[in-house]
Amino acid sequence: MKKLTIHLGVQGDKSPGEYIRIAVAAEEYGFDTIYVYDDLLYYPSFPILITMAQHTRRIGLGACLLNGFYRHPAVVVSNYAYLHRIIGQRAALGLGRGAFFDLLGMDTSEEHTRKGFAETLGLVHHLLYGNKTPYTGEFFKSTEKAFLKVPAPEVPRIVTATWNTHMARLAGTFGTHLQIAEVWHQDYMQKLYDAWQEGMQESGIQAPGDFSIGGMVCMGKSEREALDKARKTVAIYLPYLQTILKNHAIDPDSALVQRISQLSKEGKMDEAARLMPDHFVKALSLAGTPDQLAERINQLRQKVPFTGLLLSPPYGTFNSIEQNIEFIRNELISRL
Questions:
Q1: Tally of domains in the chain
Q2: 15-73 pLDDT, tens per residue?
Q3: Structural domain boundaries, residue 270
Q4: Contact 108, 79 (CB under 8 A)
Q5: Phi and psi, residue 94, nearest 5°
Q6: Does one domain contain both 191 and 123?
Q7: Cα gap 233→142, rounded to integer Å
Q8: Is the pLDDT of residue 278 over 80?
Q9: Is 276 found in the same domain as 261?
Q10: In whole angstroms, what separates CA 5 from the centre of its chain?
Q11: Do 330 and 269 belong together in one domain?
């Protein structure tokens, strides 16, 4: 079986010094890529990536879940072009629908954000590949004079991040890598892979072939310790994971889910976490001992042809990120 590429997801809530330590540790321990999330109201990803680039030589660096509603596709492309100018093919560009639109009173419907994503991806391709014809969409438009005035990457490394089959199909249509998040359900994981393949077949574009899984991971010496540590992080994203909940037979409209979601959006994470049952945490994250995580991942590999694994916070139960990264390297990766 092909060796997995191992990626690390990092949130935009750290100090500059912490980002340097994370980058150095991840490169030292052999991770393939660091993806920095570009969530609304956190630090933006590209300045963090530039900081990391100054302290690394090998590891890939990429923004994750950029979307055109927060940052215009032209701004996204120029930022990516600059990162690529510094580190070359180590640079990656992760695109997706995004979340937290409701915090700004924006339209949160899937149809609206998915269409916005499709146009974001379309205009990003338009600009990166030097297309000088006008681009016309419902959300984004450009004239024939809108083209990059700086060098573009010769071979752009574009990743679509999603947990949605419609989005997975779009990823295939545009020939991008596919990174699925928070999906640990085998049957649904397969549906996403199939949708990606169908998109490629329909468009005739040969995608790079990289299909990664991943999401929130918490590894500890005991399952109880890992579940308790993961609970608060899961609470942050639970309001935006309705599709995933349904696949685990959890009603997203239930009183409990609605109450946790309300507390989460109010920033009352401790209260939200206290209400979170273990089976919610297990559905939305991978939490447990090294043996439990390795067994689950290896079981999935027997059924679904993924080539990469993205590990997102909280990582583990140790106090420092470096300790958690080392624990993952020593106790999990060796088992895969």
A1: 2
A2: 999 999 999 999 999 999 999 999 889 999 999 999 999 999 999 999 998 999 999 99
A3: 223-286
A4: no
A5: -100, 125
A6: yes
A7: 39
A8: yes
A9: yes
A10: 15
A11: no
Residues 242 and 102 in one domain: no
pLDDT at 1: 67
This prediction's pTM? 0.94
Q: 159 and 237: one domain? A: no
**Helical (H) or strand (E) element with 159:** strand 158-162
Q: Which of 332, 333, 235 is nearest to 288 (CA)?
A: 332
Same domain as 115, residue 26: yes
Helix ranges, the chain (H): 16-28, 45-53, 73-87, 110-128, 165-173, 186-203, 223-237, 242-247, 255-265, 269-275, 278-284, 290-303, 321-331
Long-range contacts for 245-253 (Cβ within 8 Å, ≥24 apart)? 245/280, 245/283, 245/284, 247/183, 247/185, 247/187, 247/188, 248/185, 248/279, 248/283, 250/279, 250/280, 250/283
Residue 205 three-state SS = coil
Report residue 69 as tokens.
């509603």
